[in-house]
Amino acid sequence: MTVDDLIRAAAERLAAAGESRPRAARDPVNLPMIRNWTEAIDPGGPDDPDTAPPSMIQVWTMPGLHGARADDDPLGQMSQVLDEAGYTSVVATNCDQAYHRYLKVGEQLSVRGRLLDLTGPKRTALGEGWFVTTRSTWSSAGEPVATMDFRILKFRPPDPAVTPPSATPPSAATRADPSTTSPMLPLITPDTAFFWDGTAVGELRIQRCAGCGALRHPPGPMCPACGQASTAGVVGVPGDEGYTVAAGTGEVFSYVVHHHPPVPGKRLPMVVALVQLAEGVRMLGEMPGVRPDQVRIGMPVRVTFTRAGDMALPAWRPAKGALPDRVIDVTPTFVIASALATRDFQDVHHDRDLAVKRGSRDIFINILTTTGLVQRYVSDWAPDAVVRAVSIRLGVPCHAGETLTLSGQAVDEEVVTVTGRCSLGDHVTATVRIAR
After folding, report:
1. pTM
2. For 103-114, what is the mean pLDDT?
3. b/e sequence 203-212, b meaning 16+ C-beta within 10 Å
4. Which residues, 6 or more positions from 26, have their beta carbon under 8 angstroms from its beta carbon?
């Protein structure tokens, strides 16, 4: 048998074994842990001292700093098989949690796990690897209260002896797709500098001719209506900067759905819309977090700004059902405090030197924190709603020193889509299901 055959045979045995024995949480659901989690993830958010936030479910049964997985834990066993085959590096990719009910202080949880699927070997941007999907089921006094389908990529790290510095692989926190690379940035010229200066401060500026008052976009050196040279960004008539600040509202005039080729820093498919602004000009921009089947000609939209490197790019969101953006300053303290509050002691979330050694540029947010941020973002927007499920897909890593911007769209009364972006691109795309 080949190594691949042995890996598949081990997966078949684990899948056939079914669920593991129940493993009890170290502590009952308790107020100090809830307060530590809330303080790190969502300070100032709604707080019910008797109820645990639903996305804390995995926190209660994390192994801890010196904990070890049980001998029948399917993820641990499958990881060991892959480790022995040389696939020693790991990164989380997907997490789908469903909550049957919220937990109250004092409940004692236990968790069972089973292997759902093994796929591979796959060639990814990180290297050759296998995707492992497990399902965890949490119970309280024998009653199932939550489930989680969790997917990781176990991949073979590149050999540093044969990998030149110029070919250093992507961070171990990145995904196996083109969205892990740095996004393309527009070229700033003397004619367009005023426009990008505006996006940096949250303004959508439209070039205005100082002679005839005509508005135009994209910016240019001369007015096509009267031929006068542009004064945008040039000191001229007092109080006349050569542009007007748009209201940022309009409607979709046309759009395309981009499936191929890959776009650095973007997850495909993505919608790119040509928007007719209220001021009369048209402007292109992505519609992040919006599914292709949600877009229509004539849809009312409003501007939002997404980070790409050191720039802010205009993008469009449906005017109806949009959640207010939430901007999170991802400081080293935030990364470490949130990892500790979620009882995740992986060194890449705490130790910068080890994170860099493993291929990252710095420490980065862990998946439990990302799940918590998404859930609390929606819960803060709809405090009376009950969160039934959170499904997330990770994209680029969000490192210390970044700014993470969460934006959301209410698809209907029960579904909210969320996108979280940092300078590298989309960090997370998520779907949250709620009941009112």
Report:
1. 0.75
2. 97
3. bbbbbbbbee
4. 60, 61, 64, 67
